[in-house]
Amino acid sequence: MNKKWAVKRLTINLATSEMEKLEEYCQKTGRPATDVIRELIRSLEANSSIVSTQKASQAEEVEQPLPEFANLA
Question: What is the pLDDT of residues 18-64, one digit of tens each?
Fold first, then answer.
């Protein structure tokens, strides 16, 4: 198997509740956290209309759960 190595390494800080949700999701699906996070990043759309909408909503500080984690709350 020829596996590509990461070009960049990312370190993130998560709240305890966020880490617990990620661990629970990984345990239920049998997938490693790295794969889950990569998939979530790949699912992001980065076109200009979405980015400008997100910037406007950030001012309101409204937190929306990701669909994959909504059932774990």
Answer: 999 999 999 999 999 999 999 999 999 877 666 666 666 666 655 66
Task: Evaluate whether 8 touches 15 at the Cβ level (below 8 Å).
Answer: no
- Whole-number Å distance between alpha carbons of 14 and 30: 21
Cα distances (angstroms) measured from residue 57 to each of 12, 42, 66: 22, 21, 15
CB 25 within 8 A of CB 72: yes
Q: Which amino acid is at 48?
A: S
Instruction: Report d(CA 29, CA 23) in Å as an integer.
Output: 10
Residues in contact with 37: Cβ distance below 8 Å, sequence separation at least 6, in sequence order: 22
Please state the domain extents for the chain. Answer: 16-72
Q: Say if CB 36 and CB 29 are below 8 A apart.
A: yes
